Amino acid sequence: MTGKDSQPSLKNKSAIITGSTSGIGLGIARALAAEGANVMLNGFGDTREIEKLRTELAAEFKVKVAFSGADISRVGQIHDMVSSATRELGAVDILVNNAGIQHTAPVEDFADERWDAVIAINLTSNFHTIKAVLPQMKRRNWGRIINIASTHGLVASAQKSAYVAAKHGVLGLTKVVALETATTGITCNAICPGWVLTPLVQKQIEDRAAKEGIPVERARTDLLSEKQPSLEFATPEQIGALVVFLCSDAAAQIRGVALPVDGGWLAQ
User: Catalytic annotation on 163?
Assistant: First the structure.
């Protein structure tokens, strides 16, 4: 983190953050940009809104901000995204694998195509993005790879077979990459958020309130009390701050770990 009179800690570094047009990913992009990093946003959404977001971030933080609409379930588009980031930003020093999707159903009712989609976006894409950026990180002997996993990378919940399997896989991949880069200036770690208040989760709360005929605040408390003892959501800003820390020199020997940000979920 920087003080008022010091240089931004990530000045002259550049980052790709997948799934960063809203929610956790956008919080991470803002945190990195605030520390001077150039960023490439990635995700889906309204083209005009994304361009507005891109220009606002660039103006606010005085950094380069690019955008890739790559579908990260397609390896060719991942390669194009990495090439574009390298060309437009000068390098990919930091990779944050944040994009993810969810589908819930009992195993016997879980549609095959939904399983394939969740695994492709939540796990396989991480492998392909890491594989694509490692060579240039190794040439510079510096890099930070941060995978946004989940508490569901460490414990399970019913009806989330694909998501839980994918997130457990992300933690395994994180450990392997950390071991393979252990003698270099590249680190690979995972962050495991519990409930984070994003637009998607807010919609879940509102849907629950409507379905059960209860106030939204009650639905919020009920959702949290099932898993998260603090009864408070983690925030995208908190996740972003942890990403910035993992990019710092202070975190140079933090390698291959899963860091929960879960309000006590895993302490139970």
Answer: yes
The angle, 0 to 180 degrees and rounded to 10, between the axes of the packed helices 236-246 and 23-34 is: 50
The single residue listed with the structure tokens 């919940």 is 157
Rg (CA), the chain: 18
End-to-end CA distance of the chain: 32
Report the SS3 class of residue 29: helix
Widest distance between CA atoms in the chain = 59
Helix (H, G, I), strand (E, B) or coil at 221: helix
| Residue from 163, 195, 233, 265 carrying the catalytic annotation | 163
Q: What does the pLDDT look like over 3-55, one tens digit per residue? A: 445 678 999 999 999 999 999 999 999 999 999 999 999 999 999 999 999 99
The type of residue at 167 is K
* Helix spans in the chain (H): 23-34, 47-61, 75-89, 112-119, 125-140, 161-180, 199-212, 216-225, 236-246
Token output for 214:
């209860």
CA distance 182 to 237: 29
Report which secondary-structure segment, H or E, holds 134: helix 125-140
Distance, C-alpha 231 to centroid of its chain? 22
Here the tokens at position 128 are 């392909």
- Nearest residue to 95 (alpha-carbon basis) of 189, 214, 204: 189
CA 207 to chain centre: 25
Cα(237)–Cα(138) distance, integer angstroms: 30
| Six-digit token string for 180 | 């393979």
**Separation of alpha carbons 97 and 160, rounded Å:** 20
DSSP 73: T
Predicted TM-score of the model (pTM): 0.95
User: How far from 179 is each of 184, 189, 192, 203, CA to CA, in Å?
Assistant: 10, 11, 19, 39
